[in-house]
From TrEMBL:
<feature type="binding site">
    <location>
        <position position="51"/>
    </location>
    <ligand>
        <name>Mg(2+)</name>
    </ligand>
</feature>
<feature type="binding site">
    <location>
        <position position="271"/>
    </location>
    <ligand>
        <name>Mg(2+)</name>
    </ligand>
</feature>
<feature type="binding site">
    <location>
        <position position="272"/>
    </location>
    <ligand>
        <name>Mg(2+)</name>
    </ligand>
</feature>
<feature type="binding site">
    <location>
        <position position="53"/>
    </location>
    <ligand>
        <name>Mg(2+)</name>
    </ligand>
</feature>
<keyword id="KW-0378">Hydrolase</keyword>
<feature type="binding site">
    <location>
        <position position="52"/>
    </location>
    <ligand>
        <name>Mg(2+)</name>
    </ligand>
</feature>
<keyword id="KW-0479">Metal-binding</keyword>
<dbReference type="Pfam" id="PF03747">
    <property type="entry name" value="ADP_ribosyl_GH"/>
</dbReference>
<comment type="similarity">
    <text>Belongs to the ADP-ribosylglycohydrolase family.</text>
</comment>
<dbReference type="GO" id="GO:0046872">
    <property type="term" value="F:metal ion binding"/>
</dbReference>
<feature type="binding site">
    <location>
        <position position="269"/>
    </location>
    <ligand>
        <name>Mg(2+)</name>
    </ligand>
</feature>
<dbReference type="InterPro" id="IPR005502">
    <property type="entry name" value="Ribosyl_crysJ1"/>
</dbReference>
<dbReference type="InterPro" id="IPR036705">
    <property type="entry name" value="Ribosyl_crysJ1_sf"/>
</dbReference>
<protein>
    <submittedName>
        <fullName>ADP-ribosylglycohydrolase</fullName>
    </submittedName>
</protein>
<dbReference type="InterPro" id="IPR050792">
    <property type="entry name" value="ADP-ribosylglycohydrolase"/>
</dbReference>
<dbReference type="GO" id="GO:0016787">
    <property type="term" value="F:hydrolase activity"/>
</dbReference>
<keyword id="KW-0460">Magnesium</keyword>
Length: 312
């Protein structure tokens, strides 16, 4: 095996995310998913349809690609007013992609002209702690030059829909972990110690630090997906899903399909946990490591290629 190129990793990141979303979608909310159920979905024929996870990732990828350039790096890489409108427009065009209840109301209000800062507190006055900011954040890992820049871009990209601190922590965690995965030599063993210290630094929260400690412990164990879900959570909240995605990747370094299957077999929010695990695994192993038959069936293939090339 050779170390993948930057373009191959960028494609791996976006296609891994879409593959996890599409394969996980039919199992969302179900527990007791078997390996055989997932293998059947992988080997079926016909297009693989994505959900809100991929739809909004494409919006963010396009936003970042259009704003690339020396004067648009760092904080300016995300224009929050523009991004809020672009995300809401994507929902308005395809509201049937399986959006969360809170964010649906926010998007409707934004399309009707309510400022996003007001709209995102209409349903949950303290803000949503859902994983919607984290599920779409992975392209930020390609746009930011270092961990600090990635963390700041992640926060800005998530805050236009999610005001709760845990949702923002989830987005920062997923973006920074993906950035670190992009930078690892894929021919070397993956060490948990390369992830946990920078994540602790970027995400200053006792709840998240406890989750990182658990991920580190479980990554070196033979924990099965059900036990991992019981320990870390597998629900629609950011703290209840982002750590499980990281563990899915760390349990199967260099094996994106195994990472995605682990995430789906854990049950619960399967499309989203598998999308985040797929982004991490694809960023690390590259596009060539993804299953060609399943990848060729992805509905968004053309746009995934386009934005991967722009952002690489
Ligand atoms: N929503 C889903 N899947 C279930 C519905 C599927 C669809 N109806 C269908 O049948 O096709 N999946 C997608 O939603 C998750 C991302 O959610 P996001 O974008 O964060 O949305 P939202 O609405 O902000 O939060 C999701 C739910 O979390 C609970 N919640 C959040 N903050 C809360 C708070 N402060 N207090 C109480 N509850 C809170 C609510 O139940 C929200 O509805 C991904 O799984 C994506 O795939
Ligand atoms: Mg979804
Ligand atoms: Mg989901």
């Amino acid at each position: 095996m050779t170390d993948p190129t930057r373009v191959d990793r960028a494609r791996g990141l976006l296609f891994g995310l879409a593959l996890g979303d599409c394969l996980g979608a039919s199992f969302e909310g179900k527990d007791g998913v078997t390996e055989a159920d997932i293998v059947r979905a992988e080997h079926a024929t016909g297009p693989l349809s994505h959900t809100d996870d991929t739809a909004l990732t494409l919006v963010l990828a396009r936003h970042l690609a259009h704003r690339r350039g020396a004067s648009n790096r760092g904080r300016d890489g995300v224009d929050t007013d523009v991004l809020a409108r672009e995300l809401a427009e994507a929902w308005e065009a395809e509201p049937w992609r399986g959006y969360g209840g809170g964010v649906t109301t926010s998007f409707r209000l934004i399309t009707e002209g309510t400022p996003w800062r007001e709209a995102i507190r209409a349903v949950f006055p303290d803000g949503s702690y859902g994983n919607g900011g984290a599920m779409r954040v992975a392209p930020v890992a390609l746009a930011g030059g270092d961990v600090r820049e990635v963390a700041e871009l992640a926060r800005r990209s998530a805050e236009v829909t999610h005001a709760h601190a845990d949702a923002l922590h989830g987005a920062v965690c997923q973006a920074v972990a993906t950035h670190l995965a992009l930078g690892l030599d894929a021919t070397e063993p993956v060490r948990v110690a390369r992830f946990v210290p920078p994540l602790r630094e970027c995400v200053r929260s006792a709840l998240w630090h406890d989750k990182f400690a658990l991920v580190a412990e479980l990554a070196d164990s033979d924990v099965d997906p059900g036990q991992a879900a019981a320990a870390l959570g597998n629900d629609v909240s950011a703290p209840g899903s982002v750590p499980l995605a990281l563990l899915s990747f760390l349990r199967h370094p260099g094996r994106p399909v195994a990472a995605i299957r682990f995430a789906i077999r854990a049950g619960g929010d399967t499309d989203t946990v598998a999308a985040m695990a797929g982004a991490l695994a694809g960023a690390h192993s590259g596009y060539a490591a993804l299953p060609a038959h399943a990848v060729s069936r992805l509905e968004a293939s053309r746009h995934l290629h386009l934005y991967a090339e722009h952002l690489a």
